[in-house]
Design goal:
The complex is a heterodimer. Chain A is mostly helical. Chain A has helices spanning 2-42, 46-49, 63-70, 74-105, 111-120, 126-140, 146-170, 175-182, 187-198, 200-215, 219-224, 232-240, 249-275. In chain B, helix 2 (92-102) packs across helix 3 and helix 3 crosses helix 4 (136-148). Chain B has helices spanning 42-50, 92-102, 107-121, 136-148, 166-183, 194-200, 218-223, 228-233; strands at residues 4-13, 16-26, 31-35, 57-62, 65-66, 77-80, 154-158, 186-191, 203-208, 211-216, 240-248, 251-254, 259-261, 270-276, 282-297, 301-308, 311-318, 328-332, 339-342, 348-349. Classes of the chains: A mainly alpha, B alpha+beta. Chain A: The chain crosses the membrane at residues 21-40, 78-104, 116-135, 147-169, 190-215, 249-270.
């Protein structure tokens, strides 16, 4: 009797994890399939892309990639995207990181309200901001400039970074800074000499995360730039929205693959940093 | 090395007062322990000395200088935290030398002082390890080393042994005492463990609800607690208490009618609580009757738990006994060993010596 019940229990405990793993795999397949299809199509000749039924076997070609490098200033747009993503990422990690630290640690009347207000600004739909931003940029004469796009991205990245970093700093024992302050640091000194070094995994993953957000941003880029500072997502939108010649699927999938690649690499890096627990051993063990 | 003076210090968080007017003078080289239950304000007081909390009213004076508005880094103090707060990205050598580097002391001097502290604490082999590669006891030592290298005016300890296991705690306790005797630095030590406070300190300050209940040398607190709180807090196993009314100065009538004859008359009247430490009770032929419930022999001594009226009392006797559970015993105490308190105010009442 007992052994029966036991073996039943064992079978049950093996069954459900398997179902969960299978469900997870299924979800992965569903989410990854479009990406797979995009990468696959980017290596197909134009006629293979539209074969019905779609074929998995074809002669791969790099034609679209070469074509893409020459078309529509793509290489310059790539550089623009890098400048804008890196610039806005770095500015927002510095400003947002310090603001997040202040919100986490400084006992100040109304600090919580200020924090929530800043976060609430994320609730404003970007489309509502895009046009006023364009008007401001135009009257300042800075449309189609890298700095314009960088500052525009900072408006949504800084609140984001601030809240992520705040959570990170709250998890650190406050005795670390107190100890540093007794050892001869000012509050700022304790932040830069102790808190920043041990928060590096969090800071780097947040930086990469915000750079990914800036990398793939379309709306502000579309409104605020036209040629000189325009970014890759704008180019993709242009190719997809070419109503005269019809969408060039070969070019589109090639550009798409090239755009996604750094994001995937970055995302893998974030994962590595997040897993690493550098703060181990700070306090009791 | 220097003195610390706390003068009429108050602390409130908003409208909530947590420390009500505490005054305390600590002389040069003295080891003072602040002890009390959680939330009694002992840690807050220590953090105010360190400069980590603002002072609502009053003055804190370190080395004859009012430090109310002086930043922690300029108070020339060193603090050991309960969770050690070692810098995880620095190895032991860097952790211990950090404060000295902040003070722009020469490399040679830093090396010399770190090596010296490492020798005192037996950390020479661990200097290149990161905190995460150390055991709890080793981390605790590094935290102390960080304080020692500073050669500060005052050492502040905030429950530094609470995170260690019982055996290590006892070992570190005597190391700490030895260290204090060797360095002679003025020390303020916060703990909730009355044994730690008693064994380490020159003077113990018992705090409760933001006030100082009593301060004095450890044995004075033990021998002459001035309030019920101190009597109950200091000593292990804890003091036995019996509450009743004094109809005559010579007998306490418990609520169930049991009459406890007092060996000496007591001043005053009204609701009265008497307290006797377990080791001061002895078995006698004519004393307070109590029914034995548990016998716990430890070899060198025996603890007897018994019921006296509605009260559970503990009796600690040297050696062994053939008393059995269920038996009625008679216990008594010398007049000098009976502490008498006014139940309502909790304050000590003097016994009348005739």
């Amino acid at each position: 009797m007992t052994s029966l019940a036991l073996s039943g229990g064992t079978r049950k405990s093996r069954f459900w994890p398997r179902v969960r793993i299978a469900a997870g795999l299924l979800a992965c397949v569903i989410f990854l399939f479009p990406v797979f299809w995009m990468v696959l199509s980017s290596f197909k000749a134009q006629r293979d892309i539209f074969t019905v039924p779609p074929t998995l076997f074809f002669t791969p070609t790099l034609q679209h990639y070469f074509e893409y490098m020459q078309r529509a200033d793509i290489s310059r747009r790539m550089i623009n995207t890098i400048i804008v993503a890196a610039g806005s990422g770095i500015i927002s990690i510095v400003a947002g990181g310090m603001a997040g630290y202040a919100l986490a640690r400084i006992r100040l009347r109304g600090a919580g309200t200020i924090g929530v207000l800043i976060l609430l600004s994320r609730g404003v739909p970007p489309i509502a901001l895009a046009v006023p931003m364009f008007l401001v940029a135009r009257s300042l004469g800075v449309t189609d400039q890298h700095i314009t796009l960088i500052l525009a991205y900072c408006t949504f990245l800084i609140p984001y970074v601030m809240w992520l970093m705040r959570g990170f700093f709250l998890a650190l024992p406050k005795e670390l800074e107190e100890s540093a302050m007794i050892d001869g640091c000012s509050r700022m000194g304790a932040f830069f000499k102790i808190i920043v070094p041990i928060s590096m995994p969090g800071i780097l993953s947040t930086l990469i995360f915000s750079m990914i957000l800036a990398w793939e941003e379309l709306l502000f880029a579309l409104v605020l730039t036209n040629r000189y500072a325009s970014t890759i997502p704008v180019a993709i939108a242009g190719i997809a929205g070419d109503t005269v010649n019809g969408a060039n699927w070969g070019a589109l999938t090639a550009v798409g693959t090239f755009t996604v690649l750094p994001v995937v690499v970055f995302a893998l890096l974030v994962q590595k940093w997040l897993i690493q627990g550098l703060a181990d051993g700070a306090t009791k063990g | 090395m220097s003195t610390v003076a706390i003068r009429n210090v108050h602390k409130s968080y908003g409208a909530l007062p947590v420390i009500h007017c505490v005054s305390l003078d600590i002389s040069d080289g003295e080891f003072v322990a602040l002890v009390g239950p959680s939330g009694c304000g002992k840690s807050t007081l220590l953090r105010m000395i360190a400069g980590l909390e603002d002072i609502t009213a009053g003055d804190i004076v370190i080395a004859d200088r009012v430090v109310n508005d002086i930043a922690p880094k300029d108070r020339d103090i060193a603090m050991v935290f309960q969770n050690y707060a070692l810098y995880p990205h620095m190895n032991v050598r860097q952790n211990m030398g950090f404060a000295l580097r902040q003070r722009k002391i020469s490399r040679d001097e830093i090396d010399r002082r770190v090596m010296n502290a490492a020798r005192i604490l037996g950390l020479e082999q661990l200097l290149d390890r990161k905190p995460r590669a150390l055991s709890g006891g080793q981390r605790q030592r590094v935290a102390m080393g960080r304080a020692i290298v500073r050669n500060p005016n005052v050492f502040l300890f905030d429950e530094p042994l609470s995170n260690l296991d019982a055996k290590l705690r006892v070992q570190m306790r005597s190391e700490l005492k030895e260290l204090h005797q060797r360095l002679g630095v003025t020390t303020v030590y916060v703990t909730h463990d009355q044994i730690e406070a008693m064994t380490l300190a020159d003077r113990v300050v018992v705090m409760n609800g933001g006030i100082v209940e009593q301060m004095g040398p450890p044995l004075e607190l033990y021998d002459k607690p001035m309030s019920l709180f101190v009597a109950a807090f200091i000593g292990s196993p804890p003091m036995n208490f019996l509450e009743g009314s004094l109809n005559t100065p010579n007998a306490l009538i418990l609520d169930d009618g049991t009459e406890v004859a007092l060996p000496a008359p007591v001043a005053g009247n009204g609701r009265t609580t008497i307290g006797v430490r377990p080791e001061h009770l002895f078995l006698t032929d004519a004393g307070w009757p109590a029914v034995v419930s548990v016998i716990e022999p430890t070899g060198s001594e025996t603890q007897i738990t018994a019921r006296l009226g509605d009260y559970v009392i503990r009796v600690l006797i040297r050696g062994r006994t053939d008393v059995q559970p269920g038996e009625t015993i008679h216990v008594s105490a010398k007049p000098a060993d009976i502490h008498v308190f006014d139940t309502a105010s909790g304050r000590r009442r003097e016994t009348v010596t005739t």
